[in-house]
C-alpha cells in the first residue's frame, strides 16, 4: 500500500505562475503559506480581488498530485513540482476524489481543509502552449474534469516539508463533491 506523502513544497511572494521549491513551508492558520503571494484571510488571487476584495480566501493553499505529471496527455509537457504554482505536491493520494471538507494532516502539526478544485486558467497556456487542454478532461456524462489539483484553507498551522506523511480525515457524510470555487 502506498502511503500518502508530500514530495515537494513551494512558495513565492510574487504573483508569478510557477513557484520555486523550498526545503519547507510554514502554514499559518486562517491565512495560508507564510511568504506566499496568496496568503491572506481574504481573496488574494488577482481576478478574485477585482470582483470582491473582502471575500474569504478559500484558496489559501494549492495541492497537486505528482501522478498528474505521468498522465499521458500531460507527460509531454515535462512538468515538475512547483511548475503549476502549487504549494504542495503529493503522492499516493487521489486529491480530486476527496469530498469537500476533507481535512489533511501534513507533517507533525499542520491541518488543512479541502475547499474546491483548482480551475485551470488560460495562464497555463502562456506557461506551456497546449497545457490547458491537457489538464482538462471529459467525464462519461460530458461533464468537465479539472485535473490541476485542489485548493484548501489552513485550519492548524505548522511546518511542512518533502517526505512528510499525509493523513486523510474525511468529513461526516453525506459527502459533497468538489467543485471549482
UniProtKB/TrEMBL annotation:
PROSITE patterns xref list: MOSC
Pfam families: MOSC (PF03473)
Domain MOSC, first and last residues per copy: 19-169
GO MF annotation, one: catalytic activity
Name of the protein in its database record: MOSC domain-containing protein
Species the sequence originates in: Siculibacillus lacustris
Lineage, broadest ranks: Bacteria, Pseudomonadati, Pseudomonadota, Alphaproteobacteria, Hyphomicrobiales
Amino acid at each position: 500500500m502506498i502511503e500518502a506523502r508530500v514530495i515537494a513544497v513551494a512558495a513565492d511572494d510574487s504573483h508569478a505562475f510557477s513557484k520555486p521549491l523550498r526545503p519547507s513551508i510554514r502554514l499559518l492558520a486562517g491565512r495560508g503559506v507564510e511568504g506566499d503571494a496568496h496568503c491572506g484571510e481574504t481573496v488574494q488571487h488577482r481576478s478574485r480581488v477585482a470582483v470582491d476584495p473582502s471575500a474569504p480566501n478559500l484558496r489559501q493553499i494549492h495541492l497537486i498530485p505528482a501522478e498528474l505529471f505521468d498522465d499521458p496527455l500531460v507527460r509531454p509537457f515535462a512538468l515538475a513540482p512547483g511548475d503549476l504554482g502549487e504549494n504542495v505536491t503529493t503522492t499516493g493520494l487521489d486529491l480530486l476524489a476527496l469530498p469537500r471538507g476533507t481535512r489533511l494532516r501534513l507533517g507533525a502539526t499542520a491541518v488543512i481543509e479541502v475547499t474546491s478544485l483548482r480551475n485551470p486558467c488560460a495562464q497555463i497556456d502562456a506557461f506551456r502552449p497546449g497545457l490547458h487542454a491537457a489538464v482538462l478532461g471529459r467525464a462519461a456524462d460530458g461533464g468537465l474534469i479539472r485535473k490541476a489539483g485542489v485548493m484548501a484553507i489552513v485550519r492548524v498551522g505548522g511546518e511542512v516539508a518533502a517526505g512528510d506523511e499525509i493523513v486523510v480525515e474525511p468529513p461526516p457524510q453525506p459527502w459533497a463533491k468538489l467543485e471549482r470555487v
